[in-house]
Amino acid sequence: MDNVQPKIHRPFCFSVKGHVKMLRLVFALVTAVCCLADGALIYRKLLFNPSGPYQKKPVHEKKEVL
Questions:
Q1: C-alpha dihedral over 28, 34, 36, 42, to 10 degrees?
Q2: Residue 38: left (phi > 0), alpha (psi -120 to 50), or beta?
Q3: pLDDT digits (tens, 9 = 90+) for 17-64
Q4: Do residues 22 and 13 touch, judged by C-beta distance below 8 A?
Q5: Residues 37-48 as b or e (16 or more Cβ within 10 Å = b)
Q6: Where are the transmembrane segments (predicted)?
Q7: Would the pTM count as exceeding 0.90?
Q8: What's the rounded Cα separation, in Å, for the pair 65 and 51?
Q9: Which of 10, 49, 56, 66 has its CA 20 to 30 Å from the CA of residue 34?
Q10: Which residues contact 19 (CB under 8 A, 6 or more apart)?
């Protein structure tokens, strides 16, 4: 019984599973921020330019090619 070695307890942040879970959390936060930014940009674009980038102009407003 004297040869039994105590189990080494490592903190969670120093284990392999801890690193993987922290990386997942970081990627999840980055993804959430990117999704929010994308949604805000799309909302802003639709709010200020609802008809899209290409608007039909009357024939008399077209540029003439010389």
A1: -150
A2: alpha
A3: 888 999 999 999 999 999 999 999 999 988 887 666 665 666 666 665
A4: yes
A5: eeeeeeeeeeee
A6: 25-43
A7: no
A8: 27
A9: 49
A10: 13
